[in-house]
Each structure stands twice: as C-alpha cells, then as structure tokens.
Specification:
The chain is mostly helical and about 180 residues long. It is built from 6 helices and no strands.
C-alpha cells in the first residue's frame, strides 16, 4: 500500500501543472488577441511569438499534465483498495463531475488554441479574461471537495466559490475601468 502515496503525489503534481498550463494558456490567448490590434510589423512579430509560446505550453506541459493526472487518478481509483472505497462516496461523484467540467473547459481551450493558431480571432480580450476564471472556480470546487470529503459541507465551499466569482467579476470590471481611464490620458 506504500505505493499509493507515490501515486497520490504524482497525481497532485500533474494536477498542479495541468492547472498552471490552463491558467497560462488563456493569458497567452489574451496577449495574442491584443497583438492582433497592433500595427505591422509588430503585429506579425508578436503573433508569431505567442503562437510558439502557446504551442509549447499546450503540447509540452498542459496536455501531458492532463493525461498524466488522469492516468494516476484512474490507477488510484480502480487499482487500489482505497480507490474502490472512494468510488462509493457521494463527494467523489461530485468531484468527478467537476473533473468532467474541467475536461470540457480544457477542450474548449483546445478549440480556441486551434483558432488562434490559424489567426482566427473569434473572442474578445474581455471574454478571455473572464474565461480565465473558469479554471480557478473549478480548482476551488475540487479542493473543497477533496479536503471536506462530505457530500453536504462542500456546498458551503461552492457557495464561497460563487461569491468569489462575483468578486472576481467586480474586480475585473473595476480593473477594466482603470485601464480604460489610463489609456485615455
């Protein structure tokens, strides 16, 4: 059973690097979209650089981390006695639901990544800044579930996440006003 702690450690490490990749890829999306409004040749230089940075982050860090985090999670859940017990617990069902949502988020980022690699700008920087908070909200939900391990108490964590989301949105609007005010001077 000692190997279980190694599996758990590897799972946590790759979950962390997966989230780092998701947080940073969307920031690169913001910068790439902003570069689209620059004059030539600055526009082309920045877009080329952001494409390279995004490609490396996405395929060298983010995708491998997602796959390895899932691999170690499946190993823990399906091939250890502890995992079999967890699969019967309601909090784990909810956590797996959030992981499913995380994969949907990841796949949407893949779609946006592909569009930007083809110079197709379909979203605004405002949308991307808000989209960047999606991974944060999922991270909060999963951490509360894992720590509390209770099908009822995690609701307080989710309520906290929703309140946190509202504060993020208000902070974003405040920051946007400051940026617009400073750029107008």
């Amino acid at each position: 059973m000692e190997y279980y702690n190694y599996l758990k450690s590897l799972h946590i490490i790759f979950v962390l690097t997966w989230f780092v990749g998701l947080f940073n890829i969307v920031r690169l999306f913001v910068y790439q979209i902003e570069a689209n409004d620059k004059p030539s040749p600055e526009k082309e230089i920045l877009q080329a650089q952001f494409k390279i940075m995004s490609y490396r982050l996405w395929y060298i860090i983010t995708w491998p981390s997602a796959i390895l985090a899932s691999f170690f999670a499946f190993w823990m859940l399906f091939f250890t006695p502890m995992g079999n017990a967890w699969l019967k617990m309601p909090w784990m069902h909810v956590k797996l639901g959030f992981v499913f949502v995380l994969y949907l988020y990841h796949l949407k980022c893949q779609q946006i990544f592909g569009q930007l690699q083809r110079n197709e700008v379909k979203y605004t920087t405002t949308f991307m800044r808000l989209w960047n908070e999606g991974a944060t909200i999922i991270l909060f939900a999963v951490v509360f579930l894992v720590v509390l391990k209770n099908a009822f108490n995690w609701i307080y964590g989710v309520i906290g996440i929703l309140l946190f989301s509202v504060l993020l949105m208000l902070g974003f609007k405040f920051y946007k006003r400051i940026r617009e005010k400073n750029s107008g001077q």
